[in-house]
Input
Amino acid sequence: MIEKSLKLPIKRNTLKFFIQRARPKQSVVYNTYWKFAAERQSIFFKRFKGQRNPWTDDEILNQYKFTNVYRASDRVSQYMIKNVIYSMEQLPEDIFFRIILYKLFNRISTWEVLKARLGQISFKDFSFEKYNKILSEILLNGRPIYSAAYIMASGRSRFGFERKHQNHLKLIETMMIDHLPSKLLHCKNMNEAYNLLLTYPSIGVFLAYQYITDINYSTLTNFSEMEFVKAGPGAKDGILKCFSDLGDYSFEDIIKMTADKQEIEFEKLNLNFNSLWGRNLQLIDCQNIFCEVDKYSRVAHPQILGNSQRSRIKQKFTLQSKEPIDYYFPPKWNINHLII
Output
């Protein structure tokens, strides 16, 4: 007779042993991540206060171009928040239409030409032929209509047009016919909304995350920026430089762990990090910093290579005579009254 196996109780510490994940192992670049964040944010506030250049003793930051630590602080995002989202009518379909139209090209000059030619931009006045004519004329005049910030698929295989912008106009049209703005209103969380965007052609995993972050600046959704993140290619390279071994953690796990530990790490390194008027770094910001640290470490730590194997930083910093930014953030963040 075969004896029945006994089900012995598992002790708590034994159970913890079985489910505990292997921790990531930090490299020398990990501390650089926090030092970069603190110094780049210090530069932001020095510029905000009108101090004259140079704003730092860091030669790499002086020589090369890096985005702001907080994504919403960059010029293109600031323009969108003020001039695309909150300066016009707040109907859900128009909010969505304006954001996606702006972000597909992600170029302020393109938006300004469209607005100058069309006046108030809203979906009820949308015409593929009219928009296509304006964008084609910009290209004929030898001016770009897309930003180089994101590389976006043309969508030709789905919509069949020769020109990239024509396929993207059809993409917007398809989204609106599908009542996507209404569907986003009913999403329970950012992950659900992200997956909805991901079902459309030309929108990959990283762009879908960027777009839902932009949409979430508006009144269309109200998700926490701490609930969901997707690592882009640059951020993945930065993470691989900051950690010699990821252990059992995914790239997204690493970003979440980083966001959770920010106050501890700044204090441990004796760094004075000046947050965005009391708003701590969110997941999107920590993701963004990994991307910038990937670039920064090409010069600071040339011996440590990521997946891309890149060894140079392409964009040099140039002090351009652009108008100062009148900073404005999504009202739901409740920080605009602190900006003085």
Observations:
- The radius of gyration is 23 Å.
- Residues 91-215 form one domain.
